[in-house]
Design brief:
By secondary structure, the protein is mainly α. The protein has six helices and four strands. The protein starts with a helix and ends with a helix. The mean pLDDT is 85.
Length: 147
């Protein structure tokens, strides 16, 4: 995506328009105006239509012959940079680091206790700090998600 287009999209993609995009991104299938209105709790279908058309003009949505909107292009700007999509599941990127470091710490402690080896203070400190920081970032980003 050209840099100018990305800057324009980031400037326009805020507030209810961003929530509308997030909702369609999360649903992952063509969706109608009333479904967006109900899903976001908007006051009327015309408000939903306004935001859907704004997204279509930005080149992020297409409209099919039945009047349903679907993603044309996924953007990785703003809060979207920190999430990965697996089907309908949206997971913070840091979740994978948190699980990795926590698993490594757990396996290290289990192995050390089972073999009766002394615990290396550096390894314990490093893996514990990495786990805590990763979980903190995961929770922080998860709280920033829109809906």
């Amino acid at each position: 995506m050209p840099e100018n287009k990305e800057i324009n999209i980031e400037a326009e993609l805020k507030g209810t328009t961003l929530k509308t995009y997030w909702y369609i991104f999360k649903v992952g299938k063509p969706i109608g105006i009333r479904e967006v209105q109900r899903g976001l709790g908007l006051s009327s279908p015309s408000v939903a239509l306004h935001h859907l058309e704004k997204l279509r003009q930005l080149g992020l949505l297409n409209k099919d012959e039945f009047g349903k909107y679907f993603l044309k292009e996924e953007v990785k700007i703003g809060v979207f940079r920190f999430f990965l999509k697996f089907g309908k599941l949206l997971l913070p990127r840091f979740l994978f680091y948190a699980v990795f470091f926590s698993s490594a710490l757990t396996l290290y402690l289990i192995q050390a206790f089972m073999k009766g080896n002394p615990i290396d203070l550096f390894a314990l400190t490093f893996s514990f700090a990495a786990s805590i920081i990763s979980w903190y970032e995961t929770i922080k980003i998860w709280r920033e998600k829109l809906i």
